[in-house]
Design brief:
heterotrimer; A mainly alpha; B alpha/beta; C mainly alpha; A: mainly alpha; disordered C terminus; C: mainly alpha; 73% helix; 3% strand; transmembrane helix (chain C); ECF_transporter_component (chain C); membrane (chain C); transmembrane (chain C)
Chain lengths: 295, 285, 259
């Protein structure tokens, strides 16, 4: 189906890859500029454009990634993303009302990434913060890049089979949490001056009092909470995935392609996953069609 | 218009065939009713007729499905849905969820096709009038009752003007008045040349509005015929579909020799009235 | 039936093209973050945000919503940075081991004024712009309709989702379950509550995507929109003006050597 319209589809693919590549470069460059480029920056109290660069670099990078990613998503995935975002926001709110010391606002993002891959996770992540901004508080918007990173890392963790075993998921979550803490620290420092919440603010203050720079303090504060939060989130997602019917999970081309859930080797009784394989059934099969959507 | 040849299907990850060696031929500009017990594979067949199997659900589909001159398996999904529309069972899920008023909800499909604004407005007004939902146009699709949502769902597919329209239990949430109106709309669509396939269990209305009725049982279409003859068939009970109270009463009367053995069993109240009238006149003579 | 903060009124601000408001918001944010002077942020609040809020008629809601978000942040910001700012040297107040430095307070003022502008201006946009209009306007300008679908659909899904979550929590509490105790115990209680919530929502996805495909969601045609988005020459010019102003704001401190 896609072969008939090779040229426009290919040029679109190239365009999307460029978006993703440029978005990634901008995010990395932003972090490096803020951390390596100006280590003494804000400690001198000299107001600078670090805040602008932190917001602009991260937001523009995240938007480019999302634009490059969304074209890859088939309708079935697009229809699932709103459910995942609602899950992020509703659970995130319940948790904050109950007063748990974690956020748990990325369960939906991790879930979508595990079922539909990193591209779907990127879209879920950035739009979670956009909708958080539309419904609750614009404070979330500058942090969109963090959700994007969760989406990417959870997607690759799924490809590597980290969701096959119950005890691997928290490890993947903790690693994701470390990256999140490092990337989000410049926003907390240069945009919010370390004051994103009562508890976190107090911790930042404590680290500063111990002689840390502002960026150092927000980084350490993130490292205290993010790895734990993501490890718990990834574990919850493994539990949810185990509770979802296998038929639902196996509908996703990403799950079949990378054998995300291991155990049930899909190729054994059903050769349908491989498009070229002959139908292994008593019925004379005229055409066996793979469920891969034509996008 | 619709031609199924030796069609078999099993869902992914199963080796159980929901439908096996099925043949079906539906002429253009007709209303075809398909009845079957629950679990007989009605929703599966509806998805096959509209191209979602194999394009979305995957699984093993063999045989050929041709709708409106298009071989579904060879066409793209986008191409298939321009020939055949599908009204799914749940109106809540048929509604896109992305529109804040019924007016825009009805236009969702046309917007996706890039239909010019003026034409969209005309078509929205037309279809709203047809289904009596003009008064709902500025309401939120989520603020409607189940029945109102179902009318919006049906309207949102009729507006696409596909030559073939497949409806999976389109009146499940409607009251008797709404149900009757939807069936009248189907008849008027048929008169304008559209081919309709309805999966329904309201037998009296099928009797009135369907030209032909097919019976789905044991993974196959095992019988078909003109609506009255088919729906009054005594085997309907054993296929798990049942019969209308008029059929049951007349059948009982025939067993008790109150009616002649060659009487054509009634399905709807009109049929019953005819039978009763001829019975009364034969007694009176 | 949607969960945004949109405040349905008929003011001039409400009727502006959503893209005009969005570009104005971005220009304001860029300006306050580019020019490192707290009084620039103050001027923007006094000269732009407050008049716009008054004209829109949504000023009251803007005030109460922003106070709820800003008060805790400002409190923490001034206390933490006033006391522990790493560059703090000039002690202006001392009590025991507590030192308040003027550098710290100035830093808090600089950061705080920007945050106030960010929050006020963003919330004003959300209060005066229907999300559906914003999505149509952006789709018209080439944004993928998939973005518009996801955002609009989520906004309507959240109230439904919350209802389900609330009813589950209430049902559990009615059975005598207490959500107190140490965090680990609370997590253990939350887990079994989450599963039915999630599974219920995900089962609908399959059908909904089928219905969307039937209505040509996968079409590659250029989208049209039933409802026209209002626009005018004045707004078109204003948008370019905002962009130029934002660029000027970025350039100013560099040209003046403020950095």
């Amino acid at each position: 189906m896609s072969s008939t319209a090779a040229t426009p589809a290919d040029s679109k693919k190239v365009r999307n890859r460029i978006f993703i590549a440029v978005g990634t470069i901008i995010i990395i460059a932003t972090y490096l500029y803020l951390v390596v480029g100006q280590p003494t920056d804000i400690a001198q109290s000299s107001f600078s454009q670090s805040g602008l660069i932190a917001i602009a670099g991260y937001v523009v990078g995240a938007i480019l990634l999302a634009i490059g990613a969304i074209h890859r998503l088939p309708t079935a995935t697009v229809a699932m993303v709103p459910v995942a975002i609602a899950l992020n926001i509703v659970v995130g709110q319940i948790v904050s009302v109950i007063g748990l010391p974690v956020y748990l606002d990325s369960i939906g993002t991790v879930l979508v990434s595990a079922l539909a891959g990193p591209a779907a996770g990127v879209v879920t992540g950035i739009l979670t913060n956009v909708i958080w901004g539309l419904t609750l508080s614009p404070i979330a918007l500058p942090y969109a890049v963090v959700q994007v990173i969760i989406g990417v890392m959870a997607g690759y963790a799924a490809r590597l089979g980290m969701f096959r075993l119950f005890y691997l998921a928290p490890v993947a979550g903790a690693i994701t949490g470390i990256v999140c803490a490092i990337v989000s620290a410049p926003i907390s420092a240069f945009v919010f001056g370390g004051a994103t919440g009562g508890g976190t603010g107090a911790i930042v203050g404590a680290f500063q009092a111990m002689g840390q720079s502002l960026l150092g303090a927000t980084t350490l504060q993130g490292l205290l909470s993010d790895p734990l939060d993501k490890a718990i989130s990834f574990t919850i997602v493994v539990l949810i995935l185990a509770a979802l019917p296998s038929r639902f999970r196996q509908r996703f081309p990403f799950v079949r392609q990378y054998n995300v859930f291991g155990r049930k080797a899909p190729a054994l009784q059903h050769q349908t996953a491989a498009p070229a394989a002959p139908a292994a059934s008593a019925v004379p099969a005229a055409d066996v069609t793979d469920a891969t959507p034509d996008n | 218009m619709i031609q199924l040849d030796d069609v078999s299907y099993a869902y992914p990850d199963t080796d159980h065939f929901v439908l096996s060696h099925m043949n079906l031929s539906i002429p253009a500009g007709s209303v075809t009713g398909i009845v079957g017990a629950s679990g007989a594979g009605k929703t599966t067949l509806a998805k096959i007729l509209s191209g979602f199997i194999p394009h979305v659900d995957g699984g093993e589909l063999s045989g050929t499905v041709v709708v409106d001159g298009v071989t579904i398996a060879e066409a793209s999904l986008a191409d298939a849905v321009s020939h055949v529309g599908l009204v799914i069972q749940s109106p809540f899920n048929q509604i896109s969820g992305a529109k804040f008023t019924v007016r825009e909800e009805l236009a969702f499909g046309l917007e996706n096709l890039g239909v010019p604004r003026d034409e969209m407005a005309v078509r929205v007004a037309e279809v709203a009038d047809l289904l009596g939902i003009t008064g709902l146009l500025d309401r939120s699709p989520y603020a409607l009752s189940g029945g109102q949502q179902q009318l919006v769902a049906i309207a949102s597919m009729i507006i696409m003007r596909t030559p073939v329209l497949v409806m999976d239990e389109p009146t499940s949430q409607l009251d008797p008045g709404g149900t009757r109106m939807v069936f009248d709309v189907m008849s008027s669509l048929r008169d304008s040349g559209i081919t309709l396939v309805i999966f329904e269990h309201k037998l009296e209305l099928l009797r009135e509005h369907a030209d032909v009725v097919h019976v789905l049982a044991d993974h196959q279409l095992i019988a078909h015929g003109p609506s009255r003859a088919m729906l009054a068939d005594p085997r309907m009970e054993e296929w798990g579909i049942g019969s209308t109270r008029f059929t049951a009463a007349a059948s009982e009367a025939r067993t008790k020799k109150l009616l002649p053995a060659d009487v054509e069993l009634p399905v709807s109240i009109e049929d019953a009235a005819t039978v009763f009238a001829s019975f009364a006149s034969s007694k009176g003579a | 039936m949607s969960s945004t903060l949109f405040d349905n009124r008929k003011s001039v601000i409400h009727r502006l093209n959503p893209v005009t408001k969005l570009i104005a918001l971005l220009a304001i944010i860029v300006t306050v973050f580019a020019i490192p002077l707290w009084w620039v942020a103050g001027l923007i609040i006094v000269l732009v945000v407050v008049p716009a809020a008054v004209i829109s008629g949504s000023g009251g809601r803007l005030l109460s919503l922003s106070l709820r978000i800003l008060l805790p942040i400002m409190l923490v910001l001034f206390i933490v940075q006033g006391l522990t700012f790493p560059g703090g040297k000039t002690i202006i107040w001392q009590w025991g081991i507590i030192d308040v430095t003027s550098e710290g307070l100035l830093f808090a003022l600089g950061i705080g004024s920007r945050i106030i502008v960010l929050v006020l201006a963003s919330i004003l946009l959300v209060l005066t712009t229907h999300p559906g209009d914003l999505m149509s306007a952006l789709t018209e300008r080439g944004m993928s309709p998939k973005f518009a679908y996801i955002i609009s659909s989520t906004l309507q899904l959240i109230p439904a989702f919350k209802d389900r979550a609330d009813s589950i929590l209430l049902a559990q509490q009615a059975r005598g379950l207490s959500l107190k105790g140490n965090p680990l115990r609370r997590i253990k209680i939350m887990l079994p509550l989450l599963s039915p919530l999630v599974l219920g929502m995900f089962t609908d996805v399959e059908e909904r995507s089928t219905a969307m495909e039937a209505r040509a969601f996968g079409s590659t045609a250029r989208r049209t929109s039933l409802i026209p988005v209002a626009d005018s020459m004045v707004q078109r010019i204003a948008r370019w003006l905002f962009i130029v102003l934002a660029l000027a704001a970025v350039a100013t401190p560099i040209l003046l050597g403020l950095l």
